[in-house]
Write a structure and sequence with these properties.
By secondary structure, the protein is mostly helical. Helix content is about 45%, strand content about 10%.
């Protein structure tokens, strides 16, 4: 075939593509503005708890929009959809996307919402022992959700088993050895959930939202950093959970605490990580075999022990570098003391005890 013939073919293909793009663009614009429709009255009903995707499908079926996909894309880029209300609506089919979104956000019935706060460091189950082995009851997520009225604790725990462990984040879950697979993967935050009569369904939607929040916090750069450290994201979240429990809400010390624990992990002088809050994590589980107790195992536990916040996750990824310390202790005021040797550590502990400035006995 001659070169000119090939040139004509290429030009024809380019022209066809350009025409197709122009046609698609025109259709999208007319759909957005509503000019492609005849102004007939649409009647739709949005059920309580309907997703934006299902609402878009209802709009397409009623003739209010030409393409559910295009309307979903609009809601995403325009930042609308989160406030859509359930109820019955009537409007002309040529009002356009912006007016439809306004109607769905201001008319109908506003679903009741439930606000739930999950503090950083919260476990899925209640914590039943403190670091001294004394009986306590620190509410876990299941208890918090039950108190909120969104669902029962049993419904929340049952919903955990219905989550498909796929995607970049959840493929890290240690399904074989972790006592609770999604421990540490539900991001601690304040959430607003739609209330409903189906507690298990509401629980599952809440869990999915919390997982999505964790997915949004952990960036591609964080995955690359974990790989550089030679650790899986499950190991990073596990380390972050320990940092969170050891540091409490003191974000300024988290990187230093992380530096100490990485020093222990990488030193032949330490047979275990030795984090006090890990000693009684397994107390909730009847057949606990101490697999989370970092005084009895080598390395990290099989999974996170609580829900770490963003600062703790970043500390696990970016610990203080070249720190010379292998020990730390805190006093009653939350002040941290770092030491190179066990002798220095014990000297500080003895001093704090004599001053009455001691929190709990250090595990040796």
């Amino acid at each position: 075939m001659k070169k000119k013939t090939w040139l004509y073919i290429i030009l024809a293909v380019i022209a066809a593509i350009a025409i197709a793009v122009s046609v698609v663009a025109a259709l999208v614009v007319s759909d957005y503005k509503g000019t492609s429709r005849n102004g007939e009255l649409c009647k739709i009903t949005i059920k309580e708890g309907s997703s934006v995707s299902s609402i878009a499908n209802i709009l397409e079926e009623s003739g209010a929009v030409d393409s559910a996909l295009v309307f979903r894309m609009y809601t995403k880029f325009a930042g609308v959809g989160a406030n859509f209300r359930y109820g019955s609506y009537e409007f002309r089919n040529d009002v356009g996307f912006e007016k439809i979104a306004e109607i769905l956000s201001t008319q109908g019935q506003k679903a009741d919402t439930v606000t739930v706060t999950i503090p950083e460091g919260t476990g899925i189950h209640d914590f039943v022992k403190d670091v001294n082995g004394k009986d306590v009851k620190v509410p876990g997520m299941a208890t918090i959700f039950e108190k909120s009225g969104l669902c029962t604790a049993e419904e929340f725990l049952a919903a955990l088993n219905e989550i498909e462990l796929n995607g970049k984040l959840l493929q890290n879950v240690n399904t074989e050895k972790a006592y609770c697979a999604l421990e540490g993967y539900l991001f601690p935050n304040t959430y607003e959930f739609y209330a409903g009569t189906d507690g298990k369904k509401q629980a599952k939607l809440a869990i999915e939202k919390m997982i999505a929040e964790t997915e949004s916090v952990i960036t591609d750069e964080m995955y690359k950093r974990a790989e550089k450290l030679g650790l899986s994201m499950n190991e990073i979240l596990t380390m972050a959970s320990i940092i969170q429990m050891e540091s409490g809400q003191n974000g300024s010390e988290m990187a230093n605490v992380a530096g100490v624990f990485y020093n222990r992990l990488n030193s032949n002088a330490f047979s275990s990580l030795g984090s006090s809050p890990t000693c009684y994590y397994g107390s909730f589980y009847p057949n606990d075999d101490d697999r989370y107790d970092t005084y009895k195992i080598k390395g990290l536990p099989p999974g996170p022990l609580c829900a770490p916040g963003e600062l703790a996750i970043k500390a696990a990824l970016y610990p203080t570098e070249n720190t010379p310390y292998f020990y730390f202790v805190t006093d009653k005021n939350g002040k941290f003391y770092y030491h190179k040797t066990g002798a220095e550590q014990n000297a500080t502990i003895n001093r704090l005890q004599q001053e009455g400035n001691w929190i709990y006995e250090y595990f040796k």
